[in-house]
């Protein structure tokens, strides 16, 4: 009883079927022992399973024409931890799994005894003692053949009831997968399986599933001894109830111990002309036989060993067997590599073929591909750095001549130039994406000005307004300059400018950032002050008006707003983000930008302003009051000008003018 209590309880369908599989395995071994070389013709096994969704009337029978419970097998059956089948991996615990799984077990066996044929029947029960009950032994007809019959009734509610399959199809699927190595072997008996109204005959049934097979590949290994590998292209039904598509089945003593999915390694889903094929491999060997637990449900080494065996021993053979679908997959992988390197040129350290050689076969996940390329680029940069350090060290020691010095300088220069070009290209790609993204956001804003979701702080603000609010130790909020922004869209002079002030109180900004009602207050209708240095000689002011806006109040004249804010800055009445008074003088030049659609009142207010050279914007230069200018830029002109300024970079980086977000 205690021994059974300690047995692992099932947590999956296949584990819940293990006791039944043990009975079938016993039957296979029994007929193999009886018929030996003729077992594939003479060995007969019949399996019947009755199940349903409620699993309230589950029963199963297994019958074979093997040796039966003769004297040797009977002694083994009535002993725990027998060594009767130690040579084939049996450790005497299969019948204990029966007791752990089923509520009622009945056995009838005919066998050859010293004095002729005999028949023994009994009930096998879960008790501390006297597990053999209602035993009856009698003489059988001399014409009777040896046989073994066992019937199982009812599932115990200890994991078996909840995990045993309730569908007929699942019984077939798991049985087919579990005994696949036996079914394709040369010593498989004739096995008929009856589940519900359906009957399947093995191994003939396998011909309907396995479409291509390469059997018994000898693999001589240093770490795992001699292994045998069988490769199969199967119908997708072979994986219908497994978590994945493609598997390597690790077999010990003719029993599937672990099925390892290799989907991630192959990168394939279904393949074949009709997209209905999967791959299965079977691996056997003495190393696996010696390292399986006594229940034959797990190996006694870590799972990482299975991965290592697949990678180091099996992968090359699998890739050759699946050459056609993998080549097709390779084309898809190359496309993804090209897409990634187009967006992230910094990892394009070679041509596509060279890059693909650094990525596992079949890997299609973009982040994984980028990770492999980034690591390889880092390694290359490290190797290059070591070369340069080595040359410099020799130069310092006077060990390098002039030609070596020249070659080292050339090599280092080329490496640095190449890395810089890749990094610059990636920066240019980012600019392209920003412009494309803002263009789409503007369309969304104009489509429905009532919907402020497209102007939320975490979308449009994150691109063009360099603000953020941090919570300090006392719980108060502090407005700070963001680490990066994209105000180069307006003017390249703003590329490295830092935020220092706004015409709205910082407390209001802080509240607005956390508010769900007016997060757009941070972007629109307020003047934002930036400067490139702490010196007061130049100030950059930016104000955004909501795209598509036509109505303005009388006090929202942009010229008046900017001039009012300039006076506040000049008067020293404002503090910067660090809480210090803003000190400007008469020498300060103010470059002011207003970004808005020039329509409605805004068009009227700026009608007399000077038009910009392209005729799309307006420019105002005050005669007195402050030094500088106010430039009114339309949203469309803003994007157009930004694209024009960066087009040379786009062309140099080989970036098309098509939006990154346009449909293919």
From TrEMBL:
Transmembrane segments: none
Domain Histidine kinase/HSP90-like ATPase per the UniProt entry, residue ranges: 17-94
Pfam families registered for this protein in UniProt: HATPase_c (PF02518)
Name of the featured protein: Histidine kinase/HSP90-like ATPase domain-containing protein
């Amino acid at each position: 009883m205690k021994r059974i209590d300690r047995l692992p309880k099932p947590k999956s369908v296949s584990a819940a079927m293990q006791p039944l599989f043990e009975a079938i395995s016993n039957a296979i071994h029994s007929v193999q022992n009886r018929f030996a070389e003729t077992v594939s013709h003479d060995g007969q096994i019949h399996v019947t399973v009755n199940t349903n969704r409620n699993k309230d009337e589950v029963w199963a029978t297994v019958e074979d024409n093997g040796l039966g419970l003769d004297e040797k097998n009977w002694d083994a059956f009535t002993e725990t931890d027998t060594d009767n089948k130690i040579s084939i991996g049996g450790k005497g615990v299969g019948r204990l799994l029966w007791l752990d799984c089923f509520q009622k077990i009945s056995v009838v066996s005919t066998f050859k005894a010293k004095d002729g044929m005999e028949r023994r029947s009994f009930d096998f029960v879960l008790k501390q003692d006297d597990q053999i009950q209602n035993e009856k032994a009698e003489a059988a007809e001399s014409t009777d053949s040896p046989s073994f019959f066992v019937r199982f009734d009812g599932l115990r509610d200890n994991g078996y009831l909840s995990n045993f399959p309730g569908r007929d199809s699942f019984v077939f699927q798991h049985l087919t997968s579990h005994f696949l190595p036996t079914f394709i072997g040369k010593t498989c008996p004739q096995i008929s399986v009856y589940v519900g109204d359906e009957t399947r005959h093995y191994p003939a049934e396998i011909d309907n599933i396995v479409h291509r097979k390469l059997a018994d590949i000898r693999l001589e290994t240093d770490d795992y001894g001699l292994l045998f590998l069988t490769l199969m292209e199967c119908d997708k039904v072979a994986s219908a109830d497994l978590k994945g598509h493609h598997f390597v089945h690790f077999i010990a003593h003719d029993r599937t111990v672990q099925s390892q999915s290799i989907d991630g390694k192959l990168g394939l889903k279904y393949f074949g002309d009709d997209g209905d094929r999967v791959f299965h491999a079977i691996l056997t060997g003495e190393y696996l036989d010696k390292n399986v637990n006594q229940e034959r449900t797990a190996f006694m080494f870590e799972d990482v060993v299975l991965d290592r065996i697949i990678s180091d021993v099996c992968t090359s053979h699998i890739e050759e067997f699946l050459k056609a679908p993998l080549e097709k997959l390779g084309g898809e992988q190359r496309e993804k590599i090209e897409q990634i390197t187009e967006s992230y040129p910094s990892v394009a350290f070679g041509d596509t073929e060279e890059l693909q050689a650094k990525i596992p076969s079949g890997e299609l996940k973009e982040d994984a591909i980028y990770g492999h390329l980034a690591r390889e680029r880092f390694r290359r940069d490290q190797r290059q750095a070591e070369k340069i350090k080595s040359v410099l060290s020799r130069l310092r020691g006077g060990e390098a001549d002039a030609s070596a010095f020249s070659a080292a300088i050339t090599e280092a220069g080329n490496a640095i130039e190449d890395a810089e070009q890749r990094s610059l290209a990636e920066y240019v790609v980012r600019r392209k994406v920003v412009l494309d993204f803002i263009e789409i956001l503007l369309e969304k804003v104009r489509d429905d000005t009532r919907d402020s979701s497209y102007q939320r702080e975490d979308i449009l603000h994150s691109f063009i307004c360099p603000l953020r609010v941090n919570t300090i130790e006392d719980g108060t909020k502090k407005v700070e300059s963001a680490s990066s922004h994209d105000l180069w869209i307006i003017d390249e002079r703003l590329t490295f400018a830092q935020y220092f002030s706004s015409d709205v109180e910082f407390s209001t900004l802080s509240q607005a950032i956390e508010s769900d009602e007016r997060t757009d207050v941070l972007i629109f209708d307020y003047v934002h002050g930036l400067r490139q240095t702490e010196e007061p000689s130049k100030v950059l002011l930016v104000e955004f008006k909501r795209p598509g806006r036509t109505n303005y109040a009388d006090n929202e004249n942009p010229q008046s707003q900017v001039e009012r804010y300039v006076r506040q800055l000049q008067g020293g009445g404002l503090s910067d983000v660090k809480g210090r008074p803003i000190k400007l003088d008469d020498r300060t030049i103010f470059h002011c930008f207003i970004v808005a659609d020039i329509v409605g009142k805004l068009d009227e207010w700026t009608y007399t302003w000077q038009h910009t050279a392209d005729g799309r914007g307006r420019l105002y230069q005050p005669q007195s009051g402050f030094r500088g200018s106010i430039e009114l830029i339309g949203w469309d002109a803003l994007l157009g000008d930004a694209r024009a300024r960066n087009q040379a970079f786009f062309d140099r980086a080989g970036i098309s003018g098509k939006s990154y977000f346009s449909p293919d």
